[in-house]
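Hi P.,

Sorry for the delay on this. The queue was packed all week, but I finally got your sequence through. Input first:
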Amino acid sequence: MSIGISSLGTQENLIKSVENWRDIVVFNAKNDSLRAFVDSVVSSSSDIDKTSNWALGVAGAISGLLIANLDKLTPKFFEISEIKMLLIILVSSILCGLAQKSLALTCSVHLKVTEATANKLKEIIDTFESSEASIEKMIDDHQLDIDIEFDMYQVIERFVNLSPFYIKWYAQKETQKVLSDPEYNSKKTLRSYYRQNGWLLLQAMFFMLFILFAVTSL
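Then the structure:
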C-alpha cells in the first residue's frame, strides 16, 4: 500500500513539474512573440526619423534665411508681427522635430540593446545548457544530490548594482516594473513609437501652417 502511495506521489510530482515546465515554455513563447511584433513595428522608427530630419533641415534653413534677410523682407512683403509669427510657427515645428528625435533615439536604442542582448544570451545559454546536460548525466550516473540552478534574476540584480549611483535608482525602478509586468518594456517601447509618430504629425502640421501663413500674408 505504501509503495502505491509513494508511486502516486511521484507521479503527481512529475505531472506538476511537467505542467510548470509547459507553463514556462508557453509564457516565454507568448512574450517572445509579443516582443517580435513590437520590434517589427518599431523597426520603422528610423524611417520616420529620416522624414523628420528633412523637415528639420528645411525649417532650419528657412529660419536662417528669414533672420538674415529680415531688413529686406519687412518693408516689402511682411510686417514685423508677421515675421515673428512665422518664426514662432517654424520654431514650434523644430521643437516638435526634436521631440520626435528623442523618441526615435529611444526606439533605436531599444532595438539595438534587444538584439545585442538576445545574441549574447543565446550564446551563453547554449553553452550553459550543453554543460548542464553533461553535469546532469554525471549526477544521474553517480546518484549525486546536486542541483544545477541558473537564476537570471540574480544576474539582473548584479547588473543593476554595477550601475553608477545616479542611475541605480532608476535602473532598480525599471527592473522592478519589468519583473512585475513582463509586457512593460513592450508597452513602453510601443508608446514611444506612436508618440514619435504624433510629434512628426505635429511637426508637419506646423510646417504646413507656416507655408499657408506665409502665402496668405504676401
